[in-house]
Amino acid sequence: MGKVYAQLPTDTRLLTPQELESSMEAILSLREGNAPVHVFGYGSLMWNPALDYASSRSAKVHGWHRSFCLRSIIGRGSRERPGLMLGLDRGGACHGMVLQIEAHKVRDELRVLWRREMLTQLYEPRWVAALVDGTPVHAITFTVDRAHPRYAKELSIQEMAHMINTGAGSLGSCREYFDATLQKLTALGIRDAGMERLRAAAG
């Protein structure tokens, strides 16, 4: 991952290992006892979780929706060919999946997740009530930080489609990321109206 983050502008501040640990522990301080931890995924965590998890189930979160609202200049984008990445933004509802991490593996697995999702401070980790077969499950997820300079909610659907089709970086293209997410949603039997509108615009 070092090569990926080397693409960032020189004035970009990354969280230190100590800050990542502190952020993770702040979330875990709200954990219910020593129970297993659930993580709600809505993008690449559904098809490339890179976590050791015990089970996965379809789930729905109210009050948040899946949105291509984060400019990507690393990984699936670059300064020359910026892309867009998914975030969980305010309003609506989002169908995704919850991954259950066994209690004795929680800190080791969340450290991996925090380094992946929180290093550039694009997201705000929080607990949400994810409905699994109608039953609420307390789960960690990553919502967008609307104050972050790479938050891009003002884009039109045509601009979003263009960036998805042209964005590319060291981890591949933004379109590959978009298509993989759509394929996973289809496999889960989830239809996301926003994603379908983007697919129509992107061609």
Could you explain how this protein is built, in words?
This protein is of the alpha+beta class and 203 residues long. Helix content is 33%, strand content 33%. The protein contains 7 helices and 7 strands. The chain has helices at residues 2-5, 17-28, 44-47, 106-117, 157-166, 174-187, 193-202; strands at 37-41, 55-72, 83-101, 123-132, 135-144, 168-169, 172-173. The strands form 2 sheets. A 5-stranded mixed barrel has the order 1-3-2-4-5. The protein has a two-stranded antiparallel sheet with strand order 6-7. Helix 2 (17-28) crosses helix 4 (106-117) and helix 5 (157-166) packs across helix 7. The longest helix is centred in the last third of the chain and has 14 residues, at 174-187. The protein is globular. The mean pLDDT is 91.
Number of helices: 7
Helix content: 25-40%
User: What strand line-up does the widest sheet have?
Assistant: 1-3-2-4-5
Low-confidence regions: none
Order of helices and strands: HHEHEEHEEHEEHH
Shape: globular
**Major sheet summary line:** 5 strands, mixed, barrel
Mean pLDDT: 91
First-last Cα distance: 31 Å
Round the Cα radius of gyration to an integer and report it.
16 Å
- Class by SSE composition: alpha+beta
How much of the sequence lies in strands comes to 25-35%
Instruction: Tell me the total number of β-strands.
Output: 7
Short characterization:
By secondary structure, the protein is of the alpha+beta class. It has helices at residues 2-5, 17-28, 44-47, 106-117, 157-166, 174-187, 193-202, and strands at 37-41, 55-72, 83-101, 123-132, 135-144, 168-169, 172-173. The mean pLDDT is 91.
